[in-house]
Amino acid sequence: MRVAITTDSFRDGLGGVATAVAALARTLRTAGHTVRIFTAADPSHATLELDVAGFPALRYERLPGGRVVVAPVGLARELAAFRPDVIHNHSMAAMGTQALAAARWLDVPILGTCHIYLAGFLGYAPLPLDRVPLMDEAAWRYTVTFFNRFPLVTAPSQVMARELIAHGLRVPVVAVSNGVDTRLFHPGPQISGKDSVTVLHVGRLSYEKNVDLLLRAFARVAEQHPTARLTIVGDGPDREALARLAGELGLGESVRFTGFVPHEQLPALYRAADLFATASTIETQGLVVLEAMACGLPVIGVDALALPEVVHHGVNGLLAPAGDEVALAQRLACLIADASLRHRMGAASRRLAERHSLERIAAQYERLYRQAAAAPPPSFPPSWMRRGGWLWGMLAAGLHLVRGLGGGVG
Question: Is the CB of residue 321 less than 8 Å from the CB of residue 217?
Fold first, then answer.
């Protein structure tokens, strides 16, 4: 098949969505499909072996890596030239809206993946909305209104699929994991006689990841386990504040901030650690958690959103109530103190991660692409756009012209 993937911003290995898109594209290509990624232009694309079509984009600096593609006619023209059998959209913003329009006018089947729990990112709005009453519900309303335009939707976890339905999604939704490269991410040799235990955190250093809570919990643990170490991998707007907090908590010798680490170098860091920890409450699956599990690490997490689907309490890790610093510290101390428990839970993590191998995920998407091809075309634009319309009328006319020039897609 010829598969077009649309996403707002794509820099390989930078962010969970980009990592998942790159992994899916590579796996589909290995399986014999032709794949092109349509996204915001970036200099890094020139060094990739992936086929990427980049478009001019506005930068939105409040959101790390934020790009806003506004190229409806250009996107439709490039899609017409590529002649895809299906469009797989990973955006719920500007690129997603334009992908829907192009799919409708070019008569190409489309499906959409909802990666993001939007209410967890309201702090990145031009005016921070995370503390405004009723904004969580407004975020869900936007999410389901957007995805109701697709004939078929996927989400990376059963929890996220159920939440979409509960908030008003009317079209079919299927839970499909983001997948993990179980060949790249695998356990390393066991090292005996270590003097210290290393806790690892990987992710963007920003407010929604609750790294400050993890630091405070680790500070409690360090009093009883002074040789324990915490490695924090990643970068983000809160890095300096978190480094200051570590110093204020007396963790200057116990915590290491690595900064950004390229994705292909992460396996070595996972294998050098003894357990993985996260206090994030906004994970629709948690790709770094899957990577840690694939490397044979037990996981400490919080009982929120989709984490309990991959972290089975008492099996491959331990969960604490969201926001509970004391409980999180207790879970950390339990695994830091018990090497045999870490080993048993780490082995269980690897077995669970193998269920999320990229080969399995690509096979699921192959079936869904065929299903999308048999579905009715997407409803676009929605009725309020059709009523109000001069802008959408111009967009429609432009896309109609592109469709005629491109000879259609078949």
Answer: no
